[in-house]
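#structure-requests
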Amino acid sequence: MRAALDGDRERVHRAAALDRHAASVLSLQETRRMVDELIAAHGDALPKWKDAA
């Protein structure tokens, strides 16, 4: 949560990689891609990513 609120993309990637469900169905590369796609789709709802995406 803190990584998302701070706009720290790399920490969001690491947090997603540690998620047991994500790790059970996605490779690390797929997890990174998923995070990037989610930020692109919903980044405007996150304070630090309002101008990015």
